[in-house]
Amino acid sequence: MTTQKLLSFDWGMMAPEFTILIVATLLSLIDLFMPNKASRKPLALFAIAGVVIAIVFATLQIGDPTGSILFDTYRFDAFALAFKLLFLFATGLILLLAMDYKGEKNWQYRGEFFYLILTALLGAMMMASSADLITLFVGLELLSISSYILAGIRKTNLHSNEAAFKYVVNGGIATAITLFGMSYVYGLTGTTNLYSIGEALTDPIVEQNGFLLLIAFVMLFVGLSFKIAAAPFHMWAPDVYQGSPTPITAFLSVVSKTAGFVLILKVFILSFLSGQGGWHTTILLELQPYIAFIAGITMIVGNVIALRQRNIKRMFAYSSIAHAGYVLVPFVSLSLLVFKATWFYLLAYLLMNIGAFAVIQFISERDKSEDITAFSGLYKRSPLVAVMMSLFMISLAGLPFTAGFIGKFGIFMSTLSTGHYVLASVMVTTTVISYVYYFNVLVQMYFRNGVVDRIRPSVGLLLVMVICTVGTLAFGIYPSAALEFFHNGFDMTQLLEK
Amino acid sequence: MDSILLSALIFSPLLGILVLLFVPKTDEVVIKWVGLLATLLPLALAFLVFIGFDQTKEALQFAEQYKWIDFHIQPLDAGNDFVISYDLGVNGLSVVLLLLTAIVSTLAAAASVWIKDQWKGYFMLFLLLEIGMLGVFASQNLLLFFIFFEITLIPTFFLIGKWGYLDKEKAAYSFLIYNGLGSAILLIVFIILYMKAGTMNFTGLSAYLSQSPEMLERLYMGEDFRLGLLIALLVALGVKLPIVPLHSWMLQVHVQAPPPIVMIHSGILLKIGAYGLLQFGVGFFPGEFEKIAFWIALLGVINLLYGAFIAFVQIDFKKVLAYSSVSHMGIVLIGIASLTEAGTQGAMFQVVSHGLISALLFFIVGLIYQRTGTSLITHLGGLAKVMPITAGFLLVGGLASLGLPGMSGFISEFMAFLGLFKTMPVLAAIGTLGIILTAVYILRAVLTITFGETKPMLISIKEARFVEWLPALILTFFIILIGVYPAILSDMLHLTIEAMTAGKGAMS
């Protein structure tokens, strides 16, 4: 590749990524040259500023035409942008949480706490934009490796060590399996470009070797179900969620999971939908029952086991597993709503989950306890926080006037429009089961008496809670705000254009 | 199109919530006054709607419609885009229920003087609950109906779980789970209808579903499919009503919830089931409804007899009333299942009448409990000597409940059975047994409480003050008003019910 060729690319489309990359690099340099004793906490502000600038760049790109650089491995389209905005927004909120994270006694801020979040974000953004298995994999690994370290960043905490260890071993295996699946795809089609794969799959020779394709699909899916913590590859999630610092748990449950869904959307919809003509598909349709099965099992496992959790972060791990199940549902139906339903649900999930984690962080740090009883009597201690937490819980449970309800409604529509009544019934039943554990938090906050001292969250935490509350309510009462934004700004057919 | 009266009515309790936000939470008197006054605004607006409703017009009135959610996708077999509007409007049915809701809410707010702590949270939830109930009856759109329907779940859960009696949390959870499952099934039915018809508007759906059978068959809405949807609806709304095998949660709620909430619950929330059954069951699926009418009537008779039998052996007055509610809901089912105009009128009369009577009875239970700390029949003998006025109202409530002519209960039972005798005489004959049983258990309970030797623990009890029994007086007034002048309701209901039973669909 000549320099000239390199310069001829339209690098402008990577402006948000570059911003994050530059900020992360600068942060690591500043961290290196800062005096050892100096507090690293202000670095968070710098990181947040970087994310905000990236959001501005990304917003300016709305409506830009599709383009690709680096020999079609990196692609700019509405799909990528829609999800990048989610990543950026979520990471911004999580950085606010991270800035106010108190940890345990000997916790001190380390520079890498912030710039690793940014590199993980960068990985997720790359995944959203990649048009090639290789870039996809690089993005995935950048995200994963950053997350492994972040999970174990509390070096002296046993739970944290366990989390990092479990995560890295399980994650490594999952990555290996994904890569193995990718190698089959490459072997069958002779290309790593996602768009060419779709076309190559219609080749008669490939069709004769359908069983190989099946292996490829299953392997890929195993790897990806790990990423989104879908059953039966969810076992790592509770330990890792419990052991990680709370902001990182929020990161894993929102950004990492969303990235997993982006990957599934890209790989499966793109490569397994036969290139031309869009929606009539081959292998993906045949495999629908299996995805449906996984979605169903995930919802059941997540919701049922969550009932018995006493540790709030573990409970949220299972809740997060359950939500992975819900979001898998539109993939089964493959209706026209798949992008909209998934995107809206992930947006709603981002708001309510990060909001809830902000409250969890606030309470668990305050009381040095992650037991659910730490929430008892919260209404008396801080009515505002209790009300906001109630809203997040009600939204997670999918009750009306919250974004969570509209999200579930969209998913329901996509299932029922294609006649998947069984799956819809499973979703409905498990949702009702989930009422029990979500409402249990409410019961703790309002019905039980706990410590009675008045408490108030720090400015950063309060800001996150308020933003999430406003979002959850606004998109619940007037979902068109988000739906119109998505519809007008992001033409999803761009994803399918070659 | 231009009226905003309904929106104002639904959201008027918000004003009270806002005011309450600024009242210090220890200021009991102010909070209770604000709570009570806040229910007067919706009451006034509901009266306005009731008076302004033109009985001679079959069309929807006070309609409002704004575009709300647009999913920007084309439905598979309908021409229009998937848009959901914010649709409000009333017909004869809903206008009556709106007024009932407003009246019972105000009186329940008055009965809330007995609440002992956390008044601020209590009244905020109470007003939120009222928003939900009013919204349910004014919605002209399935999604909106569902949202308001679910809105009632959350405050009720708290009101039971926090302010109820000993086993309150268990009752709150079983309320949540049963009703959650019911509404989940409801949601599935609604979305299926939406995906098929491309609209959630009641009128639009009725029009869609009243196409020729061949056309519906072609749209994958064959007969069996519609029957399936109707049965799903029956189960979903049967939880709310409640129909017998699905009723166990409701007994717990009646026994454990605080009296004002039971007034609301038994007076209005249960009626959502009946309303939904009429509006969606009969309104959307008239043909299929006819096919299973026998079974619904049978369920009604079972409800009626089962409730009455079990009520007879209860020693807790609250439980007697709870089973009596089960029994009385049977009459609603019978009336609807008769599919005659008289029967349906009877069902609606029963809905209203039971709403008033059960509110009255639970009000008195609350009054008695507040003074004596018990609701066991055997502990309450001879109440007439120490609390003559209260005992008098109890007797009135009991007589109204067993269907004494001249009171609202009589009209409803009479009409419901009149309808059923026309279509299913055998079932109706069996059902009449229920009326006798009702007389037996009500009289047993009421007479034991009122007369006989005054129990020692009651001797020092004081009679209720005027303001305390005023709500009972108001309820009694309405009960007798409907009893002697039923036209005040039937004129309202007439056209809507005629349209429904003629199979023309819910609205239009």
UniProtKB/TrEMBL annotation, chain A:
The chain crosses the membrane at residues 12-34, 43-63, 78-99, 111-128, 134-153, 165-186, 211-236, 248-270, 290-308, 315-337, 343-363, 384-406, 418-438, 459-478. It comes from the Bacteria. One of its GO terms (molecular function) is oxidoreductase activity. Residues 130-434 form the NADH:quinone oxidoreductase/Mrp antiporter transmembrane domain. This is NADH-quinone oxidoreductase subunit N. Its EC number is 7.1.1.-. InterPro entries: NADH-Q_OxRdtase_suN/2, ND/Mrp_TM. Its main location: membrane. NDH-1 shuttles electrons from NADH, via FMN and iron-sulfur (Fe-S) centers, to quinones in the respiratory chain. The immediate electron acceptor for the enzyme in this species is believed to be a menaquinone. Couples the redox reaction to proton translocation (for every two electrons transferred, four hydrogen ions are translocated across the cytoplasmic membrane), and thus conserves the redox energy in a proton gradient. It catalyses: a quinone + NADH + 5 H(+)(in) = a quinol + NAD(+) + 4 H(+)(out).
Automatic annotation (TrEMBL), chain B:
Keywords: Membrane, Transmembrane, Transmembrane helix. It is found in: Cell membrane; Membrane. The chain crosses the membrane at residues 6-23, 30-53, 95-115, 122-138, 144-163, 175-195, 225-247, 268-286, 292-313, 320-339, 351-370, 382-404, 424-446, 466-488. Pfam families: Proton_antipo_M. Its main location: membrane. Coiled coil: none annotated. PANTHER family: NADH-UBIQUINONE OXIDOREDUCTASE CHAIN 4. Belongs to the complex I subunit 4 family. This is NADH-quinone oxidoreductase subunit M.
